[in-house]
């Protein structure tokens, strides 16, 4: 199981770690640490040195209550970072965006994957993703970040809701000419979901293997951990390492995290158990 990502071959026959690079002033966990270009590059360099297989660059915060940014603002934030990550670090870069213009421009700059929390639902996004030829992560979210936590009730079980949604988005991608083999799936933890539903969905994530596509998991520093353990955002690493180990056993293949080094150890340790042998 591997993905062709703009010249990089991402081997997903074993679990990998994706480092988060927020270039948003209001990102919920790093206080916009990566707001400056040089800081962003230093941050990315460290995450790659720590074992990240790729870097996820986001110019618009998707945390609950986040305010949308203009296309121009998003392009200004992400393009210089993507360009230098690719040209100076030779990094495999994922672009965290729902904006078709940002998809097109960052693909031109060498981004290797599209990570869309809106599963290509925005006008023009399917076409932009199809034209890019890049792999695409489809994530479940109901509503929009600024209001999604106001109503977290679902008529059906959360796992049925997510399966139905992802099946529809896969079909939309195939209809738009995006080959199924280019897709990754993500349950969207923390996006319009209660704590109980996040935990229930996590416990049942293996059900998503029915689609036979790689699973991407993003729970790093999220309120799912904070609410379960009563921990502030800066004290959620241990909780996420526990979640990560569980998801390695359940077959997830990509982990989108802020804390790369400890997560690489957790992934490698859990994987060594499943393989009954070390992998370093
Ligand atoms: C951008 N972003 C924030 N949280 C995320 C998650 O859980 N998954 C993916 N794919 N992207 C996310």
List keywords for this structure.
alpha/beta, TIM Barrel, 280 residues, two-stranded antiparallel ribbon, binds 9-methylguanine, eight-stranded parallel β-sheet, single chain
Which strand order spans the largest sheet, edge to edge or round the barrel?
Answer: 8-7-6-5-4-3-10-9
Helix-strand string: EEEHEHEHEHEHEHEHHEH
- In CATH terms, the superfamily is Dihydropteroate synthase-like
Tell me the strand percentage band. 15-25%
Task: Tell me the name of the CATH class.
Answer: Alpha Beta
Poorly predicted segments: none
Structure in words:
By secondary structure, the protein is of the alpha/beta class. The chain has a single domain (about 1-275), classed as Dihydropteroate synthase-like (TIM Barrel, Alpha-Beta Barrel), CATH 3.20.20. The chain is about 40% helix and about 15% strand. The strands form 2 sheets. Strands 8-7-6-5-4-3-10-9 form an 8-stranded parallel sheet. Strands 1-2 form a two-stranded antiparallel ribbon. Helix 2 (about 70-90) links the parallel strand 4 (about 55-60) and strand 5 (about 95). It starts with a strand and ends in a 5-residue tail after the last helix. It binds 9-methylguanine (9MG). 9-methylguanine binds near residues 58 and 96.
What's the short version?
The chain is an alpha/beta fold and 280 residues long. The protein is built from nine helices and ten strands.
């Amino acid at each position: 199981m591997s993905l062709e990502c703009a010249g990089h071959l991402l081997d997903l026959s074993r679990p990998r770690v994706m480092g988060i690079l927020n270039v948003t002033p209001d990102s919920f966990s790093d206080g916009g640490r990566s707001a400056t270009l040089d800081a962003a590059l230093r941050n990315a360099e460290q995450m790659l040195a720590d074992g990240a297989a790729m870097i996820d660059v986001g110019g618009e915060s998707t945390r609950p209550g986040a305010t949308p940014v203009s296309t121009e603002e998003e392009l200004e934030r992400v393009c210089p970072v993507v360009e230098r990550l690719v040209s100076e670090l030779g990094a495999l870069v994922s672009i965290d965006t729902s904006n078709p213009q940002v998809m097109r421009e960052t693909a031109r700059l060498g981004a290797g994957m599209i990570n869309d929390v809106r599963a290509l639902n925005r006008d023009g996004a399917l076409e932009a993703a199809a034209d890019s030829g890049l792999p695409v992560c489809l994530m479940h979210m109901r509503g929009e970040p600024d209001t999604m936590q106001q109503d977290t009730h679902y008529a059906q079980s959360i796992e049925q809701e997510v399966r139905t949604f992802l099946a529809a988005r896969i079909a939309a991608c195939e209809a738009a000419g995006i080959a199924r083999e280019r897709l990754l799936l993500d349950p969207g933890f923390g996006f319009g979901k209660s704590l109980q539903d996040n935990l229930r969905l996590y416990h049942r994530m293996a059900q998503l293997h029915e689609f036979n596509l790689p699973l991407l998991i993003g729970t790093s520093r999220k309120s799912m951990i904070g609410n379960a353990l009563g921990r502030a955002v800066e004290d959620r690493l241990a909780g996420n390492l526990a979640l990560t180990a569980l998801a390695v056993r359940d077959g997830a293949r990509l982990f989108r995290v802020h804390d790369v080094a400890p997560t690489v150890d957790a992934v490698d340790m859990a994987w060594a158990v499943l393989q009954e042998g070390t992998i370093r």
